[in-house]
Records
---
Amino acid sequence: MSNKKILILPGDGIGNEVMSEVLKIIDWMAKTRSMTFDITERLVGGTAYDKEGDSISDETMQIALDSDAVLFGAVGGSKWDNVERDKRPEAALLRLRKDLDLFANLRPAVVLDALAGASSLKLDLVKGLDILIVRELTSGVYFGQPRGISKINDTESKAIDTQVYTTSEIDRVSRVAFDLAKVRRNKVSSAEKSNVMETGLFWRKTVTELHKKEYSSVDLEHILADNCAMQLVRYPKQFDVILTDNLFGDLLSDTAAMLTGSLGMLPSAALGPVNENGTRAAMYEPVHGSAPDIAGQSKANPLAMIMSFAMMLKYSFDMHEDSKLVEKAVQNVLLKGLRTADIKDGAEKIISTQEMGNAVIQELKILTGN
Ligand code: IPM
Ligand code: MG
């Protein structure tokens, strides 16, 4: 049915193990749902640096540009701590984001019923939680110029990072947040530091104007980013969509992630602008990192990677039913008490990465009769 081109970038650490479980699901879908993807796999991160001399080669970058979607595992590890900055594993991630213009990062934090007890917050605070962080991903202090470390004199040096945002950069990510809020609970909380930063003040003003012009039916609140972090652990259910910049989004999304009990459960999507033929560049990635400490031990939780694939089906390929099917299979596996070590919460059975992947396939078979 579909001949969508997917670039698979497993990366470093547990990236390979969790990606293998997604590949099993893709295989199953090809066999049973007459849905085939055109898959290319390449190296990225430290593994690519070791073999190809850069954390992402120009050739791989070109394949990413020519793909319908990129599925990304994880990069990084202390092994590459001393590699120069522009060749470090993380540089590949930043290049993919920038060169594909993936400005809108969707990071859902959803507490599944079966896992509510795994959160470090009290059960009633997180049960049923469903929030979405929309993080600006291609600008702000991550990319602003000037930046660098330089000498002032023999004894003093200085470091500069620049936070910069333009009207259109704020507008486009805000539109994504407002549009998503409309099909959720219709509320956007825009987080910045307008009490201290020029960019914060400008962010607030720009979001306010766009809201007035195009989205007045959506509830909009402005919240200082520090207060937002506090409110996330005090009473997270007050939020629906949180809209924020690149750096605050990095921090707030880790906070929100932990409300759900484990980073091993959280998928994400990074979306580019919609082009003339109605498609957009996109990359899907679990929020967890490469976890070198458990790499190669079959302990990693593949569910965030699997749910990232489910997000791909939904946001890139409009395969809403298949996306829901994968999500449902994951939920059922958890309801049966199957757990990887990171989400263990008592007496449940601990299973390996591969067993978890197989359990999801088993559920898919049960759900579809295939
Ligand atoms: C994330 C990560 C990255 C970021 C790192 C690995 C560059 O923390 O995706 O949240 O800071 O954006
Ligand atoms: Mg982060």
Note: The CA atoms of residues 91 and 210 lie 33 Å apart.
---
Amino acid sequence: MIRKDWTIEEINDIYNTPLLDLIYQAAKVHREHNETGEVQVCTLLSIKTGGCPEDCAYCPQAARYNTGVNVQALMKKEEVLDYAAKAKAAGSTRFCMGAAWREVRDNKDFDRVLDMVKGVNEMGMEVCCTLGMLNEEQAKKLADAGLYAYNHNLDTSSEYYNEIISTRTYHDRLSTLDNVRKAGVTVCCGGIIGLGETHADRIKMLYTLSTMPEHPESVPINALVRVKGTPLENNPKVDTWDMVRMIATARILMPRTMVRLSAGRAEMSQAEQALCFMAGANSIFAGEKLLTTPNPSFEEDNIMFELLGLKPREAFKTEKELAEAAGIS
Ligand code: SAM
Ligand code: DTB
Ligand code: SF4
């Protein structure tokens, strides 16, 4: 059963379950709802880098922080499709294009992104974009071009949000997510731990996600990548046990969602990542760069998959399962 009526008290109890018990319960839910040992492999590409007008305190791409990230204009469609083809050949089934924009504007750059979406979709990959805020019409245009998912993170609780970002509101984030849903695009929405938030903030964020009318189809859990020059550069490193606790709680609350072990893997051992998979993570970002920071290479991940007996999830599997259940082949 997929519940969307969780209470803060229930989530608090789950989150605070003794760790080994929590992992066991999450692993059980995971096995009841998903195929064991199957992990979705997604590749990220920063199609427009740096120079962002926003003030997100964690972000190396905000123009106002001196982080050494070089500003790069929107890439050409051909370059992006070449990169997508390489990612596909290396085993990725989802390709996510990120732009350091506050919001999408109706201009030539957006038309070029629509073309990129069409191109990647035609290659048989699930296409995802993360371009900042969208209105209803822009979301529809992306859907028509073949967009499969849109990533737009809540990052933290609504209460803590203002401590991290002042140039937009939590409400702005929720409206974009609404526009994505209305356009029939799947939702990828999660957050970051290690921003200086309390456990209560993490629980509130999970409450917001797990009580949406539809659970997001993917929930990325990022550990803060501490980038020199950002206001959060000296935050303590995220404890892996906190990642495990967050992933396990998300898995129990949203049994069918792809829970993504996102930023932070470059600083985690195989054993630490294995615990996250055990606790219900079933998606990763692969390829040696996230947007601007390092990530394990395809080769390293292949070795880990082999060791742990994990296999990549095929593209569009949810649709195939739904069609099979309805008797359509
Ligand atoms: N500009 C768009 C936006 O903010 O929605 C899209 C790109 S933005 C870089 C996508 C997400 O990356 C952010 O919402 C945040 O969750 C994540 N992110 C950015 N910097 C990060 C960092 N240093 N550590 C972990 N996650 C980070
Ligand atoms: C998400 O939740 N994490 C990804 C993706 N969605 C866009 C981004 C992580 C960015 C980490 C910092 C960087 O590489 O710039
Ligand atoms: Fe800009 Fe997105 Fe980075 Fe915020 S997270 S500064 S909106 S690129």
Note: Residues 8-323 form a domain with the TIM Barrel fold (CATH 3.20.20.70).
